[in-house]
Design goal:
By secondary structure, the protein is mainly alpha-helical. The chain contains nine helices and no strands. Helix 4 crosses helix 5 and helix 6 crosses helix 9. The longest helix is centred in the first third of the chain and has 36 residues.
Length: 243
Amino acid sequence: MVTSVIVLALMYAFLTFALQGAVHTKDLEANGDNALSYIAQVISGSALAKYMILAVALSALGSTLASLVSGVRVTFAMGSDGVLPRAFGRTDSKFKTPVLATVIIGVIASIGVWLYTFGSGSVQDSFATVVSVDGLLFALYYALTGIATAVYYRKLASTSVWNIIHIAVFPLAAAGFLAYIIVRSVEGLGGWSGRDLVSLYVMLGIGVAIMLYVRFAGGSDYFSLPRETYQPAAELQPANPEP
């Protein structure tokens, strides 16, 4: 797993530097709205530029569908756990798919896109807002995941130096880096009181309201589950020194 992440990081970094090195910085800034298409045209002509436009469009479509599927999956799991109404955790008797979760998430996504579209100066601005807020949410999610990983596996991390590095140091360092990215990104989105951040606050507020309702009035036993940490096997635990 670690090797795959390192290889992908090196590959993406190399491709980024190689593509940006193909044109002058001023030309790249002047064609910022169509940077990939412009770079492709400089490298191989108009044929590759047209292909790049198609690739970007298909990538955006695929990313949207992937986000929709993941949102439905999370909603279905939360419904099964009782964190959301149980109806979200039910599947269709014939197709075995979470119909209600799929429909609700699809409707919410469609409404959100249209609200952003009509509330912005252009379609480009609307999608830029969606991407910015979504990016902040993902960064926050992965930062908290890194912290949770280090906390949950802290006993396993204490069994060896290597475990400390890749179970505690790496996740916490990644969480700190993502926190830095979030803070710097907010500066470019109009600050903590900007329009994009207000949208983020609304979404987080809805989530907190649902959580509090389920916690105190929903009757779910999810919040009563005991806290736990990963317990490494006895042979992995460091030996206690003799008194």
